[in-house]
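Quick one, tokens below:
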């Protein structure tokens, strides 16, 4: 069941069962939860930005509830972990955005697991960024369907390769359009039952790729190149949100579907943001305050304005209450149900503290540690220009003590849970060991991002190794995902793990044009990977190191490798 604390807070706020604007209790709503990537609070026209066009999002806000001050974490994987679990990201084991730091502990219970247990169809379409292997993959976290990518970054948005339920699949078109196509297909397929459709778009995160007609429009407005591209990507998102809403109308589902729109952190650059200090990566107001619009015609009156502070951790308890999702039991929640604020039942709403790593907020105050630390009176000083800590020592003491207690608690929780690379699961016998999770010698990933690969792998003892844990003993097929230039045919690689080893030669060339996407602005290299069997290893149950070593590599160019595909045979 959802933690008792969340329900108690809701009752204290005068929460009752959600009532429709016309009276009576509406049936359980379906839910479309939309999350964009790196779109700041100011990247919305109705927030005062006359350089961007977002008519669909503006109308979405007007047709339901608009939150004045809604907060997330300043980076994407942490926000996603909190949004999915109702808990601060540090408690979930997430501490960063790549190299394993983005992986959410297996013990966490997600909103998708709650809703699936309550009878909802569940689907995730877009960027996951909370783990790749089972049991961290979306399909293991309550989502019956997944289409998109599991990492935090993708290099190409046109005609790229995404995945469907763990398997690679080539797509044609622009990524935001294709993700929307898949979400629409899911909604159509589940029109006769309640559904939870999570759409975490990867726009407007870089690379700055967008269909040319959008790019031309904003270039004509004399904006700098990055801002023009971001606004173009946001308008494309706006159009795609319009497609989702249109489909709900066509299927006569709109009245009892709750549509939630949020972004995952502050703006990814210096552009209009309502005068707030900070941007993506900063715990200042501009790094954490984002748009939040919620439309639900059967339960929320149009034009509802929510002045009280709220956060990403509040979404799970809100949906749990509205959707009757009380099992399985979650871990203790940091969020509270927003139902009273959404339905007008909040006769009283006690002031609260919302914590972020390095900061704590109340309705009036923001107290920060480090850097530009201090105390800020946010209603009077939204740009955080004046530190008023000396004028309010009692407030500083109270908030500092609360922050220290909170930090100690989440730090203790962070040590709990498992987040390693586990292999051999019955539910998913194959696992990808990708370059960004490898420890390397003599070969280096192209970048730190989750779309990295090991470039120009030559011999001389160069190797890559992964710490894995086999959940069951057995025979495991090891395949190297690689690109082999013609002069490197015959290269030999050895794989070792658990006291067993195997060796194989790469017998044929396979090296596509890594710049195949260059016809699109800002396209980045994208390889086509060949799965070459290196052998079969008998692995014991438990932890071990899987090492791949280049024994012999002819030619000058070397081997490019995405990583290893490990599949349990029995």
């Amino acid at each position: 069941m959802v933690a008792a604390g969340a329900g108690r807070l809701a009752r204290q706020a005068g929460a009752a069962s959600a009532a429709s604007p016309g009276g009576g209790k509406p049936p359980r709503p379906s839910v479309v939860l939309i999350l964009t990537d790196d779109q700041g609070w100011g990247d919305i026209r109705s927030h005062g930005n006359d350089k961007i066009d977002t008519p669909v999002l503006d109308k979405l806000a007007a047709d339901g509830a608009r939150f004045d001050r809604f907060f997330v974490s300043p980076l994407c994987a942490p926000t996603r972990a909190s949004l999915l679990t109702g808990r601060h990201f540090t408690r979930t084991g997430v501490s960063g955005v790549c190299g394993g730091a983005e992986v959410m502990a297996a013990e966490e219970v997600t909103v998708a697991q709650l809703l699936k247990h309550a009878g909802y169809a569940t689907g995730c379409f877009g960027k996951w960024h909370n783990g790749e292997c089972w049991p961290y993959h979306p399909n293991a976290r309550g989502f019956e369907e997944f289409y998109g990518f599991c990492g935090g970054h993708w290099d190409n948005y046109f005609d790229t390769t995404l995945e469907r339920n763990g398997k690679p699949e080539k797509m044609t078109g622009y990524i935001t359009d294709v993700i929307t196509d898949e979400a629409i297909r899911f909604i159509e397929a589940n029109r006769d039952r309640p559904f939870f459709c999570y759409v975490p778009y990867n726009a407007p995160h870089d690379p700055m790729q967008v269909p040319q007609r959008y790019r031309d429009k904003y270039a004509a407005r004399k904006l700098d190149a990055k801002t023009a591209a971001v606004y173009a990507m946001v308008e494309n998102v706006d159009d795609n949100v319009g497609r989702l809403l249109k489909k709900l109308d066509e299927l006569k589902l709109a009245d009892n579907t709750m549509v939630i729109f949020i972004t995952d952190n502050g703006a990814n650059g210096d552009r209009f943001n309502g005068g707030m200090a900070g941007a993506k990566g900063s715990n200042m107001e501009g790094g954490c305050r984002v748009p939040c619009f919620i439309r639900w015609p059967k339960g929320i009156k149009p034009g509802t304005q929510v002045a009280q502070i709220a956060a990403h951790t509040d979404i799970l308890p809100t949906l749990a209450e509205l959707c009757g999702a009380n099992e399985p039991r979650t871990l203790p929640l940091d969020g509270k149900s927003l139902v009273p604020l959404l339905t007008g039942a909040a006769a009283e709403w006690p002031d609260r503290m919302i914590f972020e790593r390095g900061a704590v907020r109340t309705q009036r105050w923001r107290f920060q540690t480090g850097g530009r630390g201090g105390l800020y009176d946010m209603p009077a000083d939204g740009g955080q220009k004046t530190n008023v800590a000396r004028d309010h020592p009692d407030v500083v003491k109270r908030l500092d003590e609360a922050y220290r207690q909170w930090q100690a608690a989440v730090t203790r929780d962070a040590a709990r849970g498992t987040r390693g690379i586990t292999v051999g699961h019955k539910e998913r016998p194959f696992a990808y060991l990708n370059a960004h999770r490898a420890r390397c010698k003599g070969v280096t990933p192209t970048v730190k991002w989750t779309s990295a690969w090991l470039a120009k792998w030559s011999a001389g003892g160069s190797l890559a190794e992964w710490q894995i844990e086999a959940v069951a003993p057995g025979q495991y097929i090891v395949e190297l995902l690689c690109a082999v230039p013609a002069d490197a045919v015959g290269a030999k690689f050895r794989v070792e793990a658990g006291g067993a080893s195997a060796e194989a030669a790469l017998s044929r060339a396979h090296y596509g044009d890594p710049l195949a996407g260059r016809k699109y602005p800002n396209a980045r290299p994208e390889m086509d990977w060949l799965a070459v069997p290196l052998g079969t290893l008998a692995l014991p149950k438990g932890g071990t190191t899987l090492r791949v070593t280049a024994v012999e590599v002819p030619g000058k160019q070397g081997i490019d490798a995405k990583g290893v595909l490990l599949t349990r045979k029995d």
